[in-house]
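Researcher: Go.
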Amino acid sequence: MPPFVTVAAYAPPGVGMLGAGIVSEVFDSRGQDLPRFDFGLCTDRPGRIRSDVGLPIVVEHGLDRLAAADLVIALPWADFRTPPGPAVLDALTSAHERGALVAGHCVGAFALAAAGLLDGRRATTHWRFTGLLADRHPDVTVEPDALYIDEGRIITGAGAAAGFDLCLHLLRREYGAATANAIARDLVLPSHRDGGQAQYLATPAPEDCHDDRLADALTWARENLHEPLSVAELARRSLMSRRSFARRFAASTGSTPHAWLLGLRLSRAEELLETTDLRVEEIARLVGFGSAAVLRSQFVRRRGVPPRSYRRSFTRTP
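Model: Structure:
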């Protein structure tokens, strides 16, 4: 299957202005060898609708737009406790049945659940409403702490700005790390946050860290991935004990230094596989895995395919 090109975001009356803005920004056409998406908002009846903050939005497309989209995104809306009408639920179900990717951002997951698309699957939504989703749809396994849940052709994401994480994950999955990273840089966003990262953190994630000592150490780590990068060394550069460093790191990221470094190394390996002709052995050395065998093992475990297969899938031919 080729990557998605046509993107339709369902925007009911009362649509979240933030959610509509996120998908519009991510799937805007940028040029510079980046994908050009055919993006459009759609609603039950085309025309002027009111957003959740009272501002009007003009939506040009009706539900027929969902019938032709490669990627369908149900956006959050103010009255999400009331299920969408039968026509909307049928359109979402039909999109899934014909093979489209179907995503729910924030409480947009309630629309997917009402259509029966989440039955027997894992899903997430805004942390405030995960209990409500679980109570209303007991056949859905709700994971309250996840930023997003990827169930193949059904993807759900957490609330508010986590919509960026959901969209960037889809870009990374379908187009590769180089494309996702380029669009993230254009939007001045962290390039990747793992879906299992906690929805709410005591302080920002490492890319936006406000703790100067911790931020300096993590910046050094990004620039020296070829080094062993032990926790002891990162703690030393942060002028902290190992215990204090681990505690501050967990408070900032919801993760561990080992998991963060592993994700960083895999992300950099993906980008090098996509954008260079370097041998796998050299990439393994540059990102700190030491050998091609270790890189291959981690790649298969975390990405599901070996590095060479990943390179064949995402290398862009002129």
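Model: The longest strand covers residues 6-10.
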